[in-house]
Structures are given as structure tokens and as C-alpha cells.
Amino acid sequence: MGEDILYDSVARALWVLVLASLPALVPALVIGLVIGLLQAATSIQEATLTFVPKLIGVFLLLMLFGGITGGLLMDFTRDMAAAIPLMAR
Fold it and tell me: pLDDT, tens digit, for every residue of 23-81?
């Protein structure tokens, strides 16, 4: 019984990790890809050119989805704290 709860908790933790990191990773990936294509098309090979747009994009999406991500993390933390007595059996 305790092992099932533990495995389910680990699986849920990994899923929460993926969902919580998406608002930061997706814009960085998309912006990096677009700027990389523009750099290849224009032959501009400046490594620092992608930093500021990625920073702005990640910041904006974290501001937009921060409440949802925070709620997801709070629900997960609350559920894990409630499951501690069940894991001790």
C-alpha cells in the first residue's frame, strides 16, 4: 500500500515538474529558434543577440502563468503533506 502511494507521488512530482517548467522553457525555445533562423539568414553571428529577447519572453510568460504555476505547486505540496501519514504505513 505504501509503495503504491510513493510511486504515484513520484510520478505526479515529475508531471508537476514538467508543467511548472513549460512556461519558462517554451518561450526560450521558440524565441531562440526564431532568432537563430534570423541570424542564419542575415549572417549575423552575435551570441548575445538572443539573450535579451529570451529574457523578456520568459519574464512575460512567467508573469502571465505565474499564478497558475504557483497554484499547481501549492496543490501538489498540500497533497504531499497530506499523504505523509499514508506513506508511513
Answer: 999 999 999 999 989 988 988 888 788 889 999 999 999 999 999 999 999 999 999 99
Q: Supply φ then ψ for residue 8, to 5 degrees.
A: -65, -35
- Which region, left, alpha or beta, applies to residue 43 given φ > 0 means left and ψ of -120 to 50 means alpha? left
- The secondary structure of residue 88, as a DSSP letter, is T
Domains held by the chain: number? 1
Give the C-alpha separation, 30 to 68, whole Å. 21
For residue 52, give its domain range.
2-87
Q: Is the pLDDT of residue 13 over 80?
A: yes
